[in-house]
UniProtKB/TrEMBL annotation:
It comes from Zalerion maritima. Gene3D superfamilies: Aldolase class I, Leucine Dehydrogenase, chain A, domain 1, NAD(P)-binding Rossmann-like Domain, P-loop containing nucleotide triphosphate hydrolases. This is Type I 3-dehydroquinase-domain-containing protein. The lineage of its organism: Eukaryota, Fungi, Dikarya, Ascomycota, Pezizomycotina. PANTHER family: AROM/DEHYDROQUINATE SYNTHASE, QUINATE REPRESSOR PROTEIN. One of its GO terms (biological process) is chorismate biosynthetic process. Residues 895-925 form the SDH C-terminal domain. Residues 752-794 form the Quinate/shikimate 5-dehydrogenase/glutamyl-tRNA reductase domain.
Length: 952
């Protein structure tokens, strides 16, 4: 991947400037800003803001002395609106069939007036930019206050997507020879603004594609330009914890920073179409991506104390979080995404059987943030409920100003950001619509604004209340972008119509016809029969056949718990631990729901294995059994040592066989057992996972992902065996984790693999997946290494490798070294990633090879990552050698890092559920025993303590 930073990002010179949100910069609301409230004491700060890029519009309307920014902002927006109506935006909405809304009302810069008072004629949605269908190479714009981390995020995006970073401030400097603040001092305000506008016009014209644009300027014309730009390109408002911004700006007290963010939030929201909360990490502050100039200088040569946890984790989490966010708004496949190798990723959650959405309200979250473990364990989605208490949708509250709304929005963004940072589970964003909001236009408008905020934060699923008018619902559904819409109807009264009432089927049909992706219907159970009735309703919907869309339907309340357990898609459940607190118990946890499936024989308790020559020492049983137990799955995972693959035939044909891990030395040999290989296993030429297939396609072929998964956890005759390789996923994860930003894969980067067996093939494949084009194999038996190279060359020449990251035209080359006496090959850069796949302990008669690397191969100036796959000893000669090079930037990973990383995808394949990653990582460290049977807990403690820092 190339990082072409055309304009390297300096300290962004603009002030802690401001900007807004779509709906909350709503014209109607501009009129009700608390003019006197707020930041009257902030004279100097506001002066600063005004003189460093907030623009003439503010200056022009500045009263003799600026007293409140909201006042100034209100005037700015009003006047700006008069001068320039945003016809583009209006057209947009026309396209979205909202003609019946007066055009003028769609312009957030227009003043509130009687004529445009939406309460008089029903609710009008406030301005929501188009979110659908960006071009894959559409430039991304990052806006937000100084200190929000835009520049670091720009570098992350540009590196991953092979784009340029374009910094507005830098371009300005290049054009004028002066920084914008210097230019401002030296020129008249109009002239300065004119130059800024020119610079910005050039940027947007020249970099409409293939760039990441960073901008902090806010003045009327640039805002207008960005607003137009957001019709075709994502414009992302970057938010951050007030404390982090405060630290960065180093000037403001708590109240002022809050006020600053409130006002700026509103402004940025008025022209951006997305919002990203850049969560601050605390565990390793020096690695927090806060250097606004985007340089990675403090990572260069960052050292790892021997045997300390791997560094860079904080940045990796930020990187994963931001790339995940981008993947939710850009077209599929645009973002090379780390998750993409996991089997469940290819199946939408609503297509899987018995999935759970753990629910948490914003009010609860504000009061007591639940641990991610209590939410994540056993769940398939996290549902964030913006409850009426939180949203104030329960009662009209005249006078509620922007401050509170902006604060609440930032809080919602923060909750979503924090979950996204810590879990891969999708987010369901649910605004609890109240009776009052169905009739009160201003509340309805607030509801719409809150729902559209879900689009801005790129929630994967957003609910809309089916009681609302179809036109209103359509306006949201038509601008859903990549989000999936859940048409939701909860009739909460005890006298709600029974499931046989036509209202349920007609609501289902309404949702389907409007274009919802999923329907969710709930009512309280008052008698046991309700649980049977809801099953009949499911059957009736199922009977619709092809036209049906996924249905979530269950009863609420204590009697309804049965139907929650047996509703097949995204049942709403409570966080773990809540069962103890519930009085009376009116909901279930993931654990209880899963146990119900097994105890009622929907699923069967089954057997899993690890096969290998000597797997008595394997930690896979402890790791998988702990995960199974945490989820309430009663399967057993057992070690089975054998000298010959043929000994396991009876086990893999057992009706209770649920799958197996394959250990050394059978990874290549085991291919003979299987009827079908995954495309990755084929490419690697080795397997480490066996999966039974119990249902074949009508033509006798092996089904693909969905059907393969839907026959999990059910015993019965085995029709075929499927082979997968997850070792490469684990190796890739270890390399990525240990690779510092200074060693990010770029053209010319090289990798070294020691060994030529099944694991070495997985290591080569992992490097190819990372985009490494120059791979050196070192192996004593040269013919084995040559066979490995021939294997990959064949796939490459046929263009048959299922590579997940975007490829460059650079040719892939392999080089074989058969002796450590060999010099490092000329023309190949020193390796920045090394994977050692040779044993570190004695096998049979052969003594442990005391392998170390020749110093002459270790010339990388920025160090790199060494992954040592064996885990019998945590202190191999090679690991010790590399620990001594920690101060040269070398990071080490061992078998204890790898085992869980390759086990996660296996767990998905065995059970059809996401793996509890942190738990599996912890159990591996806790159950480790060395050659002498010692636990080494003291040595592993720092690693255990830092498990939470690792990627979710
Ligand atoms: O190589 C290994 C190690 C292993 O076989 C074990 O013994 O735990 C489990 C396999 O999944 C993995 O590929």
């Amino acid at each position: 991947m190339v990082m072409d930073v055309v304009h390297t990002i300096p300290e962004l010179k603009t002030s802690p400037s401001f900007t807004p949100h779509s709906s909350f910069a709503n014209p109607r609301r501009v009129g009700v800003i608390h003019r006197g409230a707020g930041i009257a004491d902030n004279g100097p700060m506001i002066e600063h803001l005004l003189t460093s890029g907030c623009g003439a519009s503010l200056q022009r309307f500045r009263p003799t002395r600026i007293q409140t920014l909201p006042h100034a902002v209100a005037e700015m927006t009003v006047t700006a609106g008069k001068k320039r109506p945003y016809s583009i935006v209006s057209e947009e909405w026309k396209g979205n069939q909202l003609e019946h809304y007066p055009r003028m009302k769609l312009d957030p810069y227009l003043p509130a007036s009687e004529e445009h008072n939406t309460c008089a004629r029903g609710p009008a949605p406030s301005w929501r930019p188009r979110l659908n269908g960006f071009e894959p190479n559409a430039s991304i714009v990052l806006v937000g206050v100084r200190g929000s981390g835009k520049s670091t995020l720009a570098i992350i995006a540009s590196t991953a997507m092979n784009r340029k970073v374009v910094d507005a401030e830098k371009v300005f400097q290049e054009m004028t020879g002066l920084s914008s603040s210097a230019h401002k001092k030296a020129h008249k305000p109009e002239e300065h603004l004119q130059r800024q506008v020119e610079a910005f016009e050039i940027i947007l014209q020249r970099h409409q594609k293939d760039s990441v644009i960073v901008c902090s300027w806010i003045q009327r014309n640039t805002v207008a330009m960005l607003k137009e730009f957001s019709a075709t390109n994502p414009v992302i408002h970057v938010l951050r914890e007030p404390k982090a911004i405060q630290q960065h700006l180093n000037v403001l007290n708590d109240d002022k920073i809050e006020e600053l963010l409130t006002v700026s939030g509103r402004l940025y929201r008025s022209f951006s179409n997305f919002e990203f909360f850049n969560v601050s990490e605390h565990s390793n502050p020096c690695l927090t991506p806060s250097n606004e100039d985007g340089s990675d200088s403090h990572f260069q040569g960052e050292t790892t104390p021997a045997r300390a946890p791997a560094p860079y984790l904080t940045l990796k989490r930020a990187e994963r979080h931001f790339l995940k966010f981008l993947s939710l708004l850009m077209p599929t496949g645009t973002i090379p995404f780390i998750e993409s190798a996991f089997p469940l990723t290819s199946i939408p959650t609503e297509k899987r059987d018995y999935t759970y959405a753990v629910s948490i309200t914003m009010s609860e979250w504000t009061y007591r943030e639940p641990t991610i473990d209590s939410l994540e364990t056993g769940s398939d989605a996290i549902e964030l409920v913006v409850d009426a208490k939180y949203s104030s949708l329960d009662e009209p509250r005249p006078g509620t100003g922007h401050k509170e709304e902006s604060y609440r929005l930032a809080h919602i963004a923060k909750a979503i950001g924090k979950y996204r940072r810590s879990t891969v589970l999708p987010i369901i964003y649910h605004i609890a619509c109240t009776e009052a909001a169905l009739t009160d236009p201003s509340l309805q408008s607030l509801y719409m604004d809150l729902v559209s905020y879900g689009l801005r934060v790129a929630a994967e699923y957003i609910t809309v209340d089916l009681r609302l008018d179809s036109q209103i619902l359509r306006s949201i559904i038509n601008s859903k972008g990549n989000a999936k819409i859940i048409g939701h109807l909860n009739l909460a009264s005890e006298s709600a119509p029974p499931w046989s009432d036509h209202i349920w089927m007609s609501s289902y049909s309404k949702a389907r016809e409007l274009g919802c992706d999923i329907v969710r219907l709930t009512r309280p159970a008052t008698r046991w029969q309700d649980n049977l009735d809801v099953k009949d309703f499911h059957a009736a919907v199922h009977g619709l056949g092809e036209i049906s869309i996924p249905l979530i339907a269950f009863n609420t309340g204590a009697i309804g718990r049965h139907s929650i357990c047996f509703n097949p898609v995204l049942s709403t459940i409570a966080p773990l631990g809540d069962e103890a607190r519930q009085q009376p118990r009116d909901t279930v946890t993931a654990l209880q729901a899963t146990q119900a499936l097994y105890s009622s024989f929907v699923y069967d308790a089954m057997d899993l294995y690890v096969f290998g020559a000597n797997v008595g020492y394997s930690m896979s049983p402890a790791m998988h059994n702990a995960a199974l137990q945490a989820y309430g799955i009663p399967h057993h995972y057992k070690p089975h040592s054998t000298n010959s693959m043929s000994n396991i035939r009876s086990l893999v044909n057992d009706p209770l066989f649920a799958g197996a891990s394959v250990g050394l030395p059978f990874k290549v040999e085991a291919i003979a057992l299987v009827d079908c290989l995954s495309r990755h296993a084929k490419a690697v030429g080795a397997i480490n996972t066996l999966i039974p297939v119990r249902e074949l396609n009508d033509d006798g072929t092996i089904p693909d992902d969905y059907k393969l998964f839907s026959s999990r956890n059910r015993s019965g005759p085995i029709r075929a065996l499927y082979g997968e390789n997850t070792d490469w996923i684990g190796i890739r994860a270890c390399i990525r984790r240990g690779l510092s930003p200074a060693n990010a894969v770029r053209p010319g980067a090289s990798g070294l693999v020691i060994g030529a067996g099944g694991m070495a093939r997985a290591a080569v494949y992992a490097m190819l997946q990372l985009g490494v084009k120059s791979i050196v194999i070192s192996n004593r038996t040269i013919s084995h290494a040559e066979r490995l190279v021939a294997h990959f060359n064949r796939f490459l020449s046929q263009n048959d490798l299922p590579l997940l990251s975007p490829q460059t035209s650079e040719k892939t080359t392999f080089q074989v070294l058969h002796s450590t006496q060999d010099p490092w090959p000329a023309r190949i850069r020193y390796p920045t990633m090394i994977v050692s796949c040779i044993p570190t302990h004695s096998i049979g008669e052969s003594p442990a090879p005391h392998f170390t690397l020749p110093e002459k191969w270790l010339g990388s100036q920025t160090g790199g990552v060494l992954v040592e796959l064996a885990y019998k000893s945590l202190e191999s000669p090679l690991l010790r050698q590399m620990w001594d090079k920690a101060d040269q930037g070398w990071v080490t990973m061992d078998g204890l890092d790898l085992l869980p990383e390759q086990g996660f995808a296996q767990f998905e394949l065995f059970t059809g559920r996401r793996a509890p990653k942190q738990l599996m990582r912890a159990v591996v460290l806790q159950s480790y025993r060395d050659d002498q049977g010692h636990a080494n807990l003291a040595q592993l403690k720092p690693r255990l303590d830092h498990i939470g820092d690792q990627e979710p």
